[in-house]
Amino acid sequence: MTKAVDLFYRFLELLLILLLGGMAIMVFVNVMLRYGFNSGLTVSDEMARYFFVWLTFIGAVVGFREYGHLGVESLVALLGRRGRIVCMILSNLVILGVSALFFWGTWLQLPINSSMKAPVTGLSMGWVYGIGFFTGAGCSLIALERLFRLLTGRVTDEEVAMFAGEHMGIEKLVERA
């Protein structure tokens, strides 16, 4: 099961690369066409915006899995293991609540977004903003899984260190660059 989950996140990372690359290519080509040939592709502006929305929301799920979001690490670093675990539980409860609210808000907004069409592509805005389902569900599932492991005592010391921001030593930072 772990391999399947890791494979899924590798797919998401590849998708993020494709979205960012597609966005950059569309904007670059459009700029070149505008300044070089006094024309442009109207669809590229719109799709670049949508790619950016999808990139942001998919990236939020990937970042949450990797403990990449902002945190008050200076406070958590002062606490012992028990205090860190309490902070992890509280943090994941808040994230679970906000993610569920985000999912529910996307659900309530779906009929309105589905009835609206994008001005250039004619794409239903439900496809654009429907990414909130993925983000809300993805972050909720990650938070639930973490809460389960925290409450059953299955959390590892490495995860606690990651939560406290101690996982990014100079070696890891150089490796990511």
From TrEMBL:
Claim: Cell membrane is one of the keywords in the record: yes
A cellular component annotation (GO) from this entry: plasma membrane
TM stretches of this protein: 12-35, 47-64, 85-107, 127-144
Gene Ontology biological-process entries: C4-dicarboxylate transport
Domain Tripartite ATP-independent periplasmic transporters DctQ component: 23-152
Alphabetically ordered keywords of this record: Cell inner membrane, Cell membrane, Membrane, Transmembrane, Transmembrane helix, Transport
UniProt keyword annotation of Transferase present: no
Source organism superkingdom: Bacteria
Locations listed in the record: Cell inner membrane
Single GO MF descriptor: transmembrane transporter activity
Lipid bilayer topology: Multi-pass membrane protein
Listed Pfam families: DctQ
Database matches in PANTHER family: 2,3-DIKETO-L-GULONATE TRAP TRANSPORTER SMALL PERMEASE PROTEIN YIAM
Subunit structure and binding partners: The complex comprises the extracytoplasmic solute receptor protein and the two transmembrane proteins.
Role: Part of the tripartite ATP-independent periplasmic (TRAP) transport system.
Membership in a protein family: Belongs to the TRAP transporter small permease family.
Protein name: TRAP transporter small permease protein
Species per Swiss-Prot/TrEMBL record: Rhizobium glycinendophyticum
